[in-house]
């Protein structure tokens, strides 16, 4: 959702903004595209807006046009260190809704302290790629229902992968799961990105919290990454999620930055 830092100059030509598709706007100056606006609707119903423009006046014109066309609420995500871009969104009426910490997570068991850890009694960890798709989808649905009944999906991370309507588990092979008494009770998803694998989700059913299952799941996936020669992974944690923050910082994860989700009502 971020764009490059704005340059100090301007285009030198009048800027016209046109809606070229249902979810896309182009800014034109002297018949050249000098900026774009895009919207996407996430599976949880939130509408996210992104603007790609080098110059602040172009950004402002695109924001003005898009906001005139779309109903609120609208959301966007900004690197907290990008002060120019943050100021642009705030000038457009957006306010900070939540902060998500970015972490770099070591995979070496000697650094994480996970090498000697064992799953809780009666719990088995199934490595990524070996989980059965049916029980995995059932667990995913149960976890989503629990979240919706408590904090709601509005509190979940902003960066959700696009997926077909009604589909929640896109790539079952990316999940490791925890099993107890034949039931899947916890999962962790790792996206094998080119630069650095990303821990995209870790969740345990409500009745199984505080037993070390999440820690055992992390031990499995981080250990597998370490054995494959990967030194670090990345993760993103909502600053209000104290349990997740304690879990990652307890295994030596290093905070490297933060993203802000902004909203305009």
Automatic annotation (TrEMBL):
Keyword Acyltransferase found: yes
Enzyme Commission number, as recorded: 2.3.1.-
UniProt keyword annotations, A-Z: Acyltransferase, Transferase
Classification of source organism: Bacteria, Bacillati, Actinomycetota, Actinomycetes, Kitasatosporales
Location of the N-acetyltransferase domain: 123-265
Gene3D superfamilies cross-referenced by the UniProt entry: 3.40.630.30
Keyword presence, Phosphoprotein: no
UniProt-listed Pfam families: Acetyltransf_1
Protein name: GNAT family N-acetyltransferase
SUPFAM superfamilies: Acyl-CoA N-acyltransferases (Nat) (SSF55729)
MF term (GO), any: acyltransferase activity
Top-level lineage group: Bacteria
């Amino acid at each position: 959702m971020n764009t490059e830092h704005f340059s100090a100059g301007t285009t030198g030509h009048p800027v016209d903004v046109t809606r070229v598709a249902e979810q896309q706007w182009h800014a034109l100056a002297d018949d050249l595209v000098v900026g774009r606006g895009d919207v996407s609707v996430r599976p949880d119903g939130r509408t996210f807006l992104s603007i790609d423009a080098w110059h602040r006046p172009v950004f402002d014109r695109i924001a003005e046009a898009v906001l005139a066309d779309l109903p609120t609420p609208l959301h966007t995500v900004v690197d907290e260190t990008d002060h120019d871009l943050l100021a642009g969104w705030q000038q457009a009426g957006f306010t900070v809704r939540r902060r998500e910490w970015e972490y770099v997570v070591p995979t070496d068991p000697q650094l994480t302290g996970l090498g000697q850890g064992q799953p809780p009694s009666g719990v088995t960890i199934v490595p990524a790629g070996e989980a059965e798709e049916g029980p995995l989808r059932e667990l995913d649905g149960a976890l989503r229902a629990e979240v919706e009944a408590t904090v709601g999906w509005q509190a979940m991370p902003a960066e959700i992968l696009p997926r077909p309507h009604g589909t929640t588990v896109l790539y079952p092979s990316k999940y490791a799961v925890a099993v107890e008494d034949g039931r899947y009770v916890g999962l962790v998803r790792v996206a094998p990105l080119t630069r650095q694998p990303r821990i995209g989700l870790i969740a345990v059913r409500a009745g199984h919290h505080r037993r070390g299952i999440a820690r055992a799941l992390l031990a499995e996936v981080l250990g597998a990454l370490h054995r494959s020669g990967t030194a670090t992974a990345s993760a993103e944690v909502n600053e209000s999620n104290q349990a997740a923050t304690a879990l990652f910082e307890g295994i030596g994860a290093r905070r490297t930055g933060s993203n802000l989700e902004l909203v305009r009502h």
